[in-house]
């Protein structure tokens, strides 16, 4: 599955360091699309151009404060995971809580970075997340899996499974989807891949692949979806150089 991707990644690595302003423009393009799509999947109604304007510090008439904060917070969360990558910091529950705290900052400060204390359900999904009293145990199991089993996996599989396991636990009241996609890209970026975009137009395929992974423990469809987007991001970078 990854032979072509591995070759493209090797080709990109041979071109490093990439031209400074090319990297800057690619980063801005991908991070705008990442922020727009990740929020749109969750129901944010700002268009991609409106998202760009909000990222530049301008408010958009007729849109809620929450929608503006979702854009601003996502930008700050991306900056945070960039810092994690540059500092080569190890994954931890504390780190995950910090990412989530940034996602919900000013939106729901009571639960920002705090595990949920009540049952939640995933709209449209067959899978039901574990009860609140099991969250701590499940998150500890996730971290244990990450350090014991995940290192032997291809980075794409590792990132896809980290996302899937995390969102299946649904440890927070809100913001789990955005946090899971940040974790996915964090893992890819640690291994030298550009960030990927889970596009809003693929939302149904995305949700179905996640539900299949949670109910049947079959991660194939979701890994395939992630792999396709990894290749798209690699193609974008290679086309620019």
Task: Explain how this protein is built.
- Keywords: ATP-binding, Nucleotide-binding.
- Pfam families: Fic.
- GO terms for molecular function: ATP binding.
- It comes from Kurthia sibirica.
- Helix content is about 65%, strand content about 0%.
- The chain has about 240 residues and is mainly alpha-helical.
- The chain has one domain: Fic-like fold.
Q: In CATH, what is the homologous superfamily? A: Fido-like domain
Would you state the CATH class? Mainly Alpha
CATH second-level architecture: Orthogonal Bundle
Radius of gyration using CA atoms only: 17 Å
In total, how many beta strands?
0
CATH topology grouping: Fic-like fold
Q: How many strands, what sense, and barrel or not for the largest sheet?
A: none
- The percentage of residues in β strands lies in under 5%
- End-to-end span in angstroms? 25 Å
Helix content: 55-70%
Helices and strands in order, then pairings?
Layout: H1 3-14, H2 20-41, H3 48-55, H4 65-87, H5 93-104, H6 135-148, H7 155-169, H8 176-190, H9 203-216, H10 220-240
